[in-house]
Amino acid sequence: MFKYETIIYWSEDDQAYLAEVPELPGCMAHGDTYEAALFNIKEAIQLWVDTAYEFGDTVPAPKGRRLMYA
């Protein structure tokens, strides 16, 4: 199980919950519910990491820090 920071929020434009992993560029997922978005982002993280390994790219270690909100 990966410990990457994940941001999940409701998008009015998409009418869905969006999930992003800032430490993994381009790693995003969505879902009709918060739980679906969380499930889908876990799958997306695994695919992102698997693809990076397949192509010999670096996989960043999770930083384990929180974002600051302004």
| Residues in helices, as a percent range | 25-40%
* Structure annotation, total helices: 1
- Tell me the series of helices and strands, N- to C-terminal: EEEH
What is the subunit organization of this protein?
single chain
Low-confidence stretches: none
Strand percent estimate: 15-25%
Give the strand tally: 3
Coarse shape: globular
**Largest sheet properties:** 3 strands, antiparallel
Placed side by side, the strands forming the largest sheet appear as 1-2-3
Distance between the termini: 30 Å
Structural class: alpha+beta
Descriptive notes:
This protein is an alpha+beta fold. The protein has a domain at 1-8 and 24-58. The protein has one helix and three strands, in the order βββα. It has one helix at residues 34-54; strands spanning 7-11, 16-20, 28-31. The protein has a three-stranded antiparallel sheet with strand order 1-2-3, covered by helices on one side. β2 (16-20) and β3 form a beta hairpin. The longest helix has 21 residues, at 34-54. It is globular.
How are the SSEs ordered, and which strands pair?
Layout lengths: L6 E5 L4 E5 L7 E4 L2 H21 L16
Antiparallel strand pairs: 1-2, 2-3
Overview in brief:
It is built from one helix and three strands; from the N terminus they run βββα. By secondary structure, the chain is of the alpha+beta class.
Observed structural traits:
70 residues; alpha+beta; 3 strands; three-stranded antiparallel β-sheet
